[in-house]
Amino acid sequence: MKIAIVGAGYVGLVTGTCFAEVGIEVQCIDIDQRKIDGLKAGKIPIYEPGLEEMVLRNYKNGRLHFSTHLGEAIQGAEAIFIAVGTPPGEDGSADLQYVLGVATEIGKHLQHYTVVVTKSTVPVSTSRKVHQAIHQAMQERGANIPFDVASNPEFLKEGAAIEDFLKPDRIVVGCESQQAQDTLSRLYKPFTLNGHPILFMDIPSAEMTKYAANAMLATKISFMNDVALLCDIMGASVDQVRKGIGSDPRIGNKFIYPGVGYGGSCFPKDVKAMIRSAKENGHRMRILEAVEEVNEDQKKVMGRLIREHFGADLHGLCFGIWGLSFKPKTDDMREAPSVVIIEELLAAGAQVRAYDPVAMHEAKHQLGERITYAPDPYSAIQGADALILITEWPEFRIPEWERVESLLRRKVIFDGRNQFQASELRGRGFHYRNIGNP
Fold it and tell me: How many Å apart are CA 82 and CA 322, to the nearest integer?
């Protein structure tokens, strides 16, 4: 079976590589010649654990191909996945110009029946627009090739994308013909053989499922962050509250860890897009509006804790930061809370020295040379007035506290992920503050 993936970004590259891993021939297409040349040379444009090895293996074995020529690459493909970006516009709506641009190109070159699958996160009704764009492009060249459009949203967690794709909780597919369903059933058979369910539904429901899932998870995070602030005011421990409610199977223990707010490429963009889509259809997503507001405020909580301890003027102070990416196991800096926290520190006159295992190169695109990038965690805190933990990378879990104590100029720690033991650190004489534990 042969398929084509249009877009060699995070979703497209992971999707194409994982399909190749189960024996499917995959053409991965992107307009960025440098990216395609790099992939052919073994250079992976994103950081994702396990991806590089899998790309190299399947490219070497001839199952994974890279091209900039869509017209050639889609010939013979039974399914074409559109996996290009849908960046948020100024009003929060998803920008569909790249998705519809690909659809038009497909319409110009399609020669046989194919299922065109939207893999990008797109608002409800996008598949209809994709169908119209393909049909119009065909009419302009006088062709009448049969095709179907389907929706197959991705549910990949950055840092665990390979595992999520190969062992999915569920596979959601929206389609409107038996032929499309049969094609996608064959494509996903290697995964359903292992007991992973595939859920067929109508296309609008599939498109909505993606937004609703991310919005629900974002809601849990913002709810818990709001509870953490109330705990701090009223003398309760959010860590104890979290355990208390997480043991209720109706709630569960996932996505209820308080912190400095969510970021990344999915939750912020999808929440905004769902709010905007609702407004366009005469409805207000009042809960999601609050979710977004709470999250933006949460990114400023660490700055408030720092000012409470040091005062508003931070001139002459240096802060060592551990973690820059929005979450562990990724170099993604999009909407990262670290950027908000660092900007507040810089605006107050502080110096910042930061370390992240993989995201410092990406951080430079946003922060430039206004901060110092350290070669390791301990260099980041040498002579600093405080340590600030922002991203809970595993290597930060059990530091050498004697070494930390000897390097810091002042024994002050701000824990944005509630990762360290307050009793241990306070027993060592540290001033220790985290989220939601007075």
Answer: 36
Strand 79-82 relative to strand 25-29, pairing = unpaired
The Cα 377–Cα 366 span in angstroms is: 21
- Would the CA dihedral through 227, 229, 234, 235 be positive or negative? positive
User: Is 206 inside any structural domain?
Assistant: no
Annotated catalytic residue 175: no
CA-CA distance, 95 to 306, in Å (whole number)? 37
| Average pLDDT for the chain | 95
Which of the residues 28, 175, 231, 266 is marked catalytic? 266
| Cα gap 392→328, rounded to integer Å | 6
Structural domain of 167: 2-201
Domain boundary among 153, 183, 201: 201
Please count the helices (runs of H) and the strands (runs of E) in the chain: 19, 14
Whole-angstrom Cα distance, residue 372 to residue 98?
Answer: 36
- Tens-digit pLDDT profile for residues 176-211: 999 999 999 999 999 988 788 999 999 999 999 999
Residues in contact with 126: Cβ distance below 8 Å, sequence separation at least 6, in sequence order: 94, 96, 99, 118, 151, 207
- pTM score, whole prediction: 0.90
One DSSP character per residue, 202-240 reads -HHHHHHHHHHHHHHHHHHHHHHHHHHHHHHHHT--HHH
Instruction: List beta partners, residue 171.
Output: 198
Q: In terms of domains, do 293 and 305 share one? A: no
Q: 């994982």: which residue's tokens?
A: 18
| Cα distance between residue 288 and residue 153, in whole Å | 20
Instruction: Kindly give the residue spans of alpha helices, DSSP state H, lying in 235-263.
Output: 238-246
Parallel, antiparallel or unpaired: strands 79-82 and 114-118: parallel
Q: Are 91 and 236 contained in the same domain?
A: no
**Measured torsion, CA atoms of residues 375, 315, 400, 322, in degrees rounded to the nearest 10:** -50
